[in-house]
Amino acid sequence: MAKEKLSRSRELATKVIFAALQILSEKGGQAPGKEVVSEVEKRVNFDDWAKAIYEKSGYVRWQSILHFYSIDCIKAGYLVKKMGVWYLTPEGEAALKLGEIGLLNAAIEAYKKWKNENQPSEVIEGQDVSEEGQQGQEATIQEVEQLAIEGLKKQIDHKNPYEFQDLVAALLRGMGYYTPFVAPKGKDGGIDVIAYRDPLGTVTPRIKVQIKHREDTASVQEIRQLMGLLQKDGDVGMFVLSGGFTTDAKTTARSSHVHVELIDLNRLITLWQEFYPKLADEDKARLPLIPIFFYSPVV
């Protein structure tokens, strides 16, 4: 049987998409998108054509192709992108067995099926990847979103522990809470912020917040220490940690007899984006955002 003849773009796509999903598999099923792209660059040999820069967008060709065809993988159920992190699904893991060409072909067919069912339109075969068309637009939007999330994480990472603490307190105020206590520098007895629904704290829930700004994840012991501080009816614990939480820590919080909410960096950013319009100008200045709008076709 004659070997399938692929266009240069499609041939490059088979390599970068397969490499990306393979990298995710090797990393346990998830990794920051920026890290995946960096690893693909190390794993795949690119010629000058692949490394060329699109004049219109300024994007490198192979990276644009990776993002472009990642949309097919998303529609096929092989890949999920959320808050700058890429997740390999069980279906994506299984699709790796199809090989480079088989995986991409299956993803493309899945995308075509989705598009025909949701947004039927003329499909032009064999066209090179560019910024034109809805799929190209969707890939560009995802690239911009990923850059935005990475930028926010970098800005938060540069904050010292007390600035991070003030950021969390500002978010709570934007969510409609009063924050009568924000711990000063020094010992705080384990509680960094106390938040009430009313100025006097007579209405539940009364939130006791512990905040840590570090790369290390929280341990089960730290979650239990916060649980021990919730002594009154209506007390709710909140643990905000930029480094995230271990699986055991999450299980401990879920199974607790008291309500303990865990907020990692991704969730903090999501909440900041959601409640940003409700923040006071002084609080907005702690992590300023600029909204960007894209055309969204009606499905």
TrEMBL record:
Protein name from the UniProt record: Restriction system protein
Residue ranges of every copy of the Restriction system protein Mrr-like N-terminal domain listed in the record: 17-97
Natural source organism: Nitrosomonas communis
Biological classification of the source: Bacteria, Pseudomonadati, Pseudomonadota, Betaproteobacteria, Nitrosomonadales
A Pfam family of this chain: Mrr_cat
Domain Restriction endonuclease type IV Mrr: 160-271
SUPFAM superfamilies per the UniProt record, alphabetical: Restriction endonuclease-like
GO MF terms, alphabetically ordered: DNA binding; restriction endodeoxyribonuclease activity
Cleavable signal peptide: none
Biological process according to GO: DNA restriction-modification system
PANTHER family: MRR RESTRICTION SYSTEM PROTEIN (PTHR30015), TYPE IV METHYL-DIRECTED RESTRICTION ENZYME ECOKMRR (PTHR30015:SF7)
